[in-house]
Specification:
The chain is mainly β. The protein has three domains: 82 residues, Sandwich (Immunoglobulin-like); 82 residues, Immunoglobulin-like (Sandwich), CATH 2.60.40.1080; 104 residues, no CATH class. The strands form eight sheets. It has an eight-stranded antiparallel β-sheet with strand order 29-28-31-32-23-25-26-30, with no helix packed on it. Strands 13, 17, 20, 21 and 22 form a five-stranded mixed β-sheet that branches. A four-stranded mixed β-sheet has the order 5-4-1-10, with no helix packed on it. A hairpin with a 2-residue loop joins strand 20 and strand 21.
Amino acid sequence: MKKRISIISIIIIFLISCVETDFVLDPQSSNTEGTISVMTNSQSLLVNESMQLQASAYDSENNPISSVQFNWSSTNSSILTVDQTGLVNGISAGQAWIVVSASGYKSDSTLISVLSNNQQLASIVVTPNSASLSPGEIQQFTAQGFDGNNQPINNLTFVWSSSDENVVSISTTGLATANNSGSANIIASYDGVQSSNVRVDVAGNSKSGTFMGNPATSYTVSGSAELVSSNSQLTLNFGSDFSSSSGPGLYVYLSPVNSVGANSVELGELISTTGAQSYSVPPGYSLSDFSYVIIHCKPFSVSFGSAEIN
């Protein structure tokens, strides 16, 4: 009996040792995404010309990685072609993106113009080349055109556009306004030539305040309220300290002024007269649209109280 127990113990120890060894040596225990950087000496070439591009790969800690098999492609092969060594050929006048990718790596791209002659507009450079804003902030962008010899072309009137106007809107003069949290690309273009994407990040933000009862009535409202902008969505949150007098038909409103009117937005019936609760705001609004949260009695058109949010 003792001999059988001893054999079983040895087998268990052996199995445990195998499991631990297999776990430690497992080559699949780490799989993080790296990045690719594509490099070019010029952003343009002439029709029937060729240009060699280079690409480098880096791991998640930005260490260079060799022997990576890159995949090259063009977004418009009638304008630009590229082979699997990164050799680009100009086919016809226009612009196209050259994209380089590899398995396990984040792809990169570069915008290249094909010209009939070097006096043509070849590229547009936007300044600054990125921006980080908070909702309500503005950023002035400027643009400069360059020909195929990299000489400036002046007196161009650019067309400005945003990939997401709900996040960042931009005027005809390049003045960008941050509306809601998220990211958007700003582009300047002229006569079929566009700039590279300029990324604008808008950080999440909020406005908050404390409820007070309507002094013209005997009703009481107290506690905190916070209007939060995240991923282009506004959410109104009441704190756990929220409390309101009871009444029929109590509704929650957001408003630019301390009264319910044409520019107010109804969020729905008050969920509870006490405690934390949340309300989704319909799309299309930004933090700057509202300054007050109002608890309003619809049947009698009386506001019980409000919170000014800043």
